[in-house]
Amino acid sequence: MIGRFLTRYYLLNKRLFKKYSFLLILCMVPLLVGGLRLAAKEESGIARVVLCLPDPEDEMAVLVAEELMRDEAGILRYSLCEEEEEARRMVMEDEADTAWIFHTDLGESLQAAASKKRVRPVVKVVERKDSVSLILSREILGAALYPAFSYAVYEDYIRKNLRLTEISDEQIRQAYERTLVEGSLFQMAYLDGGQEEEEAFRYLQAPVRGMLAIWLVLCGLAACLYFMQDEEQGLYARTPVARRLSVSFGVCAVFVSDAVLILLLACKAAGVFTVWHREVWSCALFACATLAFCNLIRLLCVTPGRLGSCIVILTAGMLVLCPVFLNLRGFRAVKYLLPPYYYLLSVHNVRYLYGMAVYTTVVSVLCVVLCRWKNAGVRRRLKFYKEC
Fold it and tell me: What gap in Å lies between CA 81 and CA 187, rounded to an integer?
């Protein structure tokens, strides 16, 4: 039986690889992953920021600018200039989204703000219009300026409130640094308690897994479309109608198994891979859920034309409702009907692995019930025609 199974698997795969549409679908993944990897290596960002340093010898301003430009996440894209008029011109002509113009002596400006016990502007921000990305950029600017401002407040308090004027600047700096918190105040963790699996990739790579998940569902729908076309051409004429559901699952499983292997390799190549055991289990359950879902859609659509029309609607719905780009809070009843929703959340939450298993069982039972109901209807019609 194992030999017969492997022979059929080989022959069905050989038949698939002779289809140009199948090869085209498989080629979509290398193009997607390769394009995103190239885009991630290029300069990118959600906003373009021009840093204006009127005095290139201002050590504090240079340090802040270097700290900003060391951003490894690539959220903002920075450029430098020395003239305020040039920075304003770049914003007005849409060469930059915002300009940050530092004071001539940033260190003294921060010291003056600290001594007066209130936050005073030390950087002039020029924008054409406000947006969410620019609000985020101002938060990043504040985080870059805060360490210097915090030390200025600390030093002013030591000098004026405690009246410790005889202490040198080096002693104050050493005392301040001893109280600093090492590392981050926050620790990233997932619902399943995993911390070593934290994914480290640029934001352009974030939707890769979601797009691959939707691509796998498209592979399942394409496999069902191939089966329906073969069925119309009489390829399964000698197969009893009652057994065609299991045949459909088997034929589509060959297509989906090839797609799952490519999905795993693509996740590894794109840099969004976590650990093997979690990825394999999630992909295996996702493949089963996809098979059940696609066959249920096939039974509901009845004809290849209707199924082809549904593919566009389902793709748009999965892109919006599944956590590919955004995780919307509403529409939970609809989300639970889509296999990619379970897969994308199961990578870091074991609960969704169990949910995907239950989903696969329920949808498979629905496929069996619907298939038997349709077969019973066909038998009733045949009996009616014979009696007539």
Answer: 37
